[in-house]
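#struct-help
A.M.: can someone run this one for me? Single chain, 379 residues.
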Amino acid sequence: MSAHSILASMGDEGRMQVRSLTMTSLDIPFRQAFTHASAARSKTEAVLVRAESVRGLVGMGEGCPRHYVTGETVAGAQEFFRSHRSEWMTCSTVDDLQAWGTAHADLIDRNPAAWCAVETACLDLLGKEMEQPIEVVLGCTPLSGPFQYSAVLGGEKFFSFERQLRQYLAVGFSDFKLKVMGDLEADRERVAALTAAGIPGLRVRLDANNRWHRVDEACEYIQGLNGTFTALEEPLRVGDYEGCRILSRRCGVPIILDESFVSVGQFPVIEAEPSLWIVNIRVSKMGGLLRACAVAAQAKSLGIPIVVGAQVGETSILTRAALTVADRYRDVMTAQEGAFGTHLLEYDLCDPPLMFGRGGRLAVDGCYNRPGLGLSFVR
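D.P.: on it. Structure tokens below:
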């Protein structure tokens, strides 16, 4: 179901009246640094939006501006917010949010994380006004769960990699995303450690974060890793679709598009050969839940699988928003990322935080049936 048809089923029953709308930056330290080819990070880089209704109910939203993904910065997100805050204060229904997003699609394309934070806060607030979880607000069924997450191994020094791997093995993960850093011997050592761990049903996909410029260079490197992989994420420069087509055929695995796929308007570039592609849907990157659902719906209609991804350092807010996409599109989802909570963050905004447990699973509990996002905010 498209975002438009979801909204059409809503009618005009759900309303809110926003009294205040504020945005602040969010800086939460990590328990350990995380490194990949595009960045090294030791704390969150996010914005937090708080929406309060005239009834005193509060909705919260989060967005993660990333200059190397969508060209955004925290400062730019705050400027975007100041420029349009008064317009959003008049939104009272899901239809209003959709209408503003449609009318300003080009603007959201340049500010997806900022809009994501605003839209999520408003949907959370609207759910509380309606006394319904956000899935019901959007005309869907409540979450069914459970949710199975992938482990993510960064590009840290090998001793840090080994420590991370031991932690994941102790929990019982079998699905891994491995960041490759461009040092063939070091990356080969990481692949060998994963293979030697004897993990039943091991699945490994690589994420190169746009490391290579040429197909032959990427192909030679990947083959030199001496491993078996299920997919390759962003191996070439952003937007090099033709190079990725060639690489996919040579390596015999699909290409996951992340930085190279940020809006539903990019489907014409890949729809002719759906078997070559997987689309990574990160709610913040896509510009909010409504746009993320529209991308997932279109991918499903074209037979293109998806990954429901996450930005490094997300709090429980974006983890919860992504569950809406993951639950509705399980049949085309090949992997789900995120839900690190205080496994990574020094603290979360919610208690309890949404985070994976044994085997990388996040079970459905009572919070999913509570109004809005159903989270209990403590900060």
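A.M.: thanks! The chain has 14 helices and 15 strands.
D.P.: also worth noting: Residues 1-12 have pLDDT under 50 and may be disordered.
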